[in-house]
Amino acid sequence: AGVDRGRIDAAALAGHLAGLQALPGLMNAALGLSDAVARVAEELAKAQDILFLGRGAMFPLALEGALKLKEISYIHAEGYASGELKHGPIALIDAAVPVVVLAPKDALFDKTVSNMQEVMARHGKVLLLSDAAGVEEAGRGSWQVLTLPQVAPEWAPILYAVPAQLLAYHTAIAKGTDVDQPRNLAKSVTVE
User: Fold this and answer.
1) Domain residues for 132?
2) Active-site annotation holds for 187
3) pLDDT above 80 (res 188)
4) Which of 70, 105, 125, 187 is catalytic?
5) How many distinct structural domains can be found in the chain?
6) Lower CB count within 10 Å: N or C terminus of the chain?
């Protein structure tokens, strides 16, 4: 439809389709991080508060990662847009507050890294999730890094959701909570 209306050319469409077809393999590679995530989760399980930061398309994923962590591990977690860090959340940063930074090497990477450096300057424990190029450029000084496969920006939120979900799962397991039946959660929501 986009080609027919002149909104996208055939080459761009082919590129998007190739990216979509590559996604299952990339997600399988991200699932391969499960053991590394479990090791990080052992430490996260000791935290009382955890922050998630993301910019652009990673911001909704920061919200989702924090929500899932909260729901099944019962740790207070909040997701923030990286650019909003100076508008309040930065006051929460100290050595006891891990900060999960979702930062694929994309057009917004440098700004996200700048926010990450502000966290580290306040002795925050940064867990950086990025691709190899991002980890190479900005991983030094991070408490932990998880290296994901490189992916086109439009598919990054889908790929980065895998370690975000694994982080919630393994943190809950490390805390000994019931991941299959979290307290006070309904399987469905009925709106009247």
Assistant:
1) 10-175
2) yes
3) no
4) 187
5) 1
6) C
